[in-house]
Specification:
Bound molecules: NADPH dihydro-nicotinamide-adenine-dinucleotide phosphate
Distance between the termini: 27 Å
Strand order of the largest sheet: 2-1-3-5-6-4
Shape: globular
Largest sheet: 6 strands, mixed
Radius of gyration: 20 Å
Length: 312
């Protein structure tokens, strides 16, 4: 890139992108705010390793772009003109982007959310790699395979939407979704109902006593934002679950959440959400390159970036 100083910590504005010349193949993540994102370090670490085997990748570079919600369309048009091969979308753009693209993968369309765009003949096509990231993460970290699993999912926001859809598409044995707000829970259940061809989807109030129908050996997934901050309470008590259960907390940061500490105390398998971020990144980079992506390099890049972020 010329016309700008590009370091891994740089946050580009739309004006920066308009002024700069991008050599090679640019990629980016759009969000607002975006300064905290570790996606550039994660992707650039994987690309560096890929470049060792195939020099073409030495000219690929992943950037971070601050895109306010009202300027998403403008940013997409500009990046298409500048030849950005791939774009990741994070808060608050995953749903709104559907107003700006025509071609959307059927799973992303069913979810109503897109986190990965690939430029084809001047236009962006959309996918969602969050569900794939979740399924790969729980298999790798907890040894849980979704087909046949009993899943207790906490939360009804964007993350829960992708995870719930993936559980149903992968034929989980049951999916119980608990949320604090009844309205948001109903919205999510309505959205997922078309994917529930076997009648395995149920909802419950997270503030009420837990339903007795929850499987004692379930995969418990925290997709609420409780756990992001060190003093946060746990979203669920684990008394009803046996050591055969497992806990996946989609939050990640400098500390271990209370939910994960409780799981450790009870001898349950547990993991935080960094692996979901890594695996969704792997899938996005596969979509952009069509090549095998080195997961280990991506994970190391993510871990190093997180350490640096937490040290600030
Ligand atoms: P949303 O804002 O869309 O949803 C937030 C969810 O958290 C809602 O269900 C909300 O419930 C619930 N919640 C918030 N505060 C409380 C509380 N005090 N008590 C109970 N429930 C609460 O956020 P996202 O879905 O985008 O993100 C949720 C979490 O998932 C975040 O921590 C985020 O970091 C993580 N995430 C991780 C990813 C990964 O790759 N590891 C990817 C995406 C997200 P209500 O409806 O009642 O408000």
């Amino acid at each position: 890139m010329t016309g700008l100083d590009s370091t891994t910590g740089t946050v580009l504005t739309i004006e920066d992108v308009a002024r700069a010349q991008f050599d090679g193949v640019p990629l980016a993540v759009f969000g607002s705010p975006i300064a905290h994102s570790i996606s550039p370090q994660m992707h650039n670490a994987a690309l560096a390793q890929m470049a060792a085997a195939d020099p073409r990748y030495a000219h690929w570079h992943y950037h971070r772009v601050e895109v306010p919600p009202a300027r998403l369309g403008e940013a997409l048009t500009l990046c298409a003109e500048k030849g950005f091969r791939g774009i990741n979308l994070t808060l608050p753009h995953k749903v709104q982007v559907l107003d700006h693209i025509e071609a959307v993968d059927p799973q992303a369309r069913a979810l109503g959310a897109v986190n990965t765009l690939r430029l084809e003949n001047g236009h962006y096509h959309g996918w969602n790699s969050d569900g794939y990231g979740f399924e790969s993460a729980v298999r790798e970290e907890l040894g849980v395979v979704l087909p046949g699993a009993h899943v207790v999912l906490l939360g009804a926001g964007g993350a829960a939407r992708a995870i719930g859809a993936q559980c149903l598409l992968s034929r989980c044995a049951s999916l119980h979704i608990g949320n604090r707000s009844a309205e948001r829970l109903t919205e999510l259940l309505d959205l997922l109902r078309p994917l529930d061809t076997r009648g395995v989807l149920h909802g419950f109030d997270l503030a009420a006593p837990l339903p007795v129908s929850l499987a004692p050996d379930a995969l418990i997934v925290n997709a609420t934002s409780l756990g992001l901050h060190p003093g946060d309470p746990a979203p669920i008590a684990l008394d009803a679950f046996t050591p055969a259960a497992a806990v996946y907390d989609t939050t990640y940061g400098s500390h271990r959440s209370l939910l994960l500490r409780n799981a450790l105390k009870r001898g349950l398998r547990s993991a935080n959400g960094l692996s979901m971020l890594v695996w969704q990144g792997v899938r996005s980079l596969e979509i952009w390159t069509g090549a095998h992506v080195p997961v280990k390099a991506m994970r190391t890049g993510a871990e190093e970036a997180l350490l640096l972020r937490n040290a600030r």
